């Protein structure tokens, strides 16, 4: 999900026993209603194993939670903090498919509700903006909203993540959703102290997202060290002091020093200031695994669209707009020609680093049967002043989040069919 509420954790938890954790997750994708994929966990060595992972325009991992473990489908979301699972309850929207694997608290000996009298259940403490209240059983109830309108609510609980007999977390705080607009849970992976990686003391993770059109949609995901990192190009993350109060700034997001966009050999005439947060925080550029599309502020979007009109304007679908955010769209029948005329798209960062984010027809993503769009939307339609690099522009590359060194790594790869 693109943007989320910020939270604070008072829990300290650790993975054990290894400090050089390296877990690898097979990532597969197949078409259901949106595209989905599933992963499975197996132990390879004492500190190196494989885990289930799904890809459905978001990254979905099958995580073993509870004692004994129950496999729960969770979207890997670097744009949010709170992790939550689907507990027994109801899905509010009829449009949500009933393909839900519910977590049963009564089957887990390590499950515990968070009582109302704990500090975490009190609103308005620093960085804790999650609306909470006491339910009739004196358990801490929460409601969690995302910028795209999705919702999850239920109880805050503590529970274990058990990856193998030697890789088990102590109890982590997460949400146990009994009503939501999603059919999966969420694995919050931003820099907040309540996120999964912060609670589990994981300082590095990476993933390789396969493209959406191949026959083998299996990629790979790592918690910990990635053996391919020697070939990565790194970009330093922007960080912000805790004291900074900017209404449009998400201080817990992975913020990149983006400088510009190049399409083919044409560097677009976009001021670098458009990609940098101003005093209000507007213009922040974030990379987010939980956002499907990439979103640009108006000035950048307009320049990209103008270039698309110059290159392939006559082939655009007239009057068509996808989800009220994207209007650079084409009939599928002309997608190959459109791709050839557009060529490559590059995102430019500090120190001359350029990242190829799409090539030819791969720049287009199918939004409905027979319609493909350049995977870029207008961020103002999300009611945000930010640039968000979504997973549509993270296909066929390694993306590594290195928190210890405050940097993001990129490495070109053919992600389909990767093996650990």
TrEMBL record:
This is Aspartic proteinase PCS1-like. The keyword Signal applies. GO terms for cellular component: extracellular region. The gene is LOC111471392. It comes from Cucurbita maxima (Pumpkin). Pfam families: TAXi_C, TAXi_N. PROSITE patterns: ASP_PROTEASE (PS00141), PEPTIDASE_A1 (PS51767). Residues 1-20 form the signal peptide. CDD domains: pepsin_A_like_plant (cd05476). Residues 59-411 form the Peptidase A1 domain. The keyword Zinc does not apply. The active site is at 77, 288. Keywords: Aspartyl protease, Glycoprotein, Hydrolase, Protease, Signal. One of its GO terms (biological process) is proteolysis.
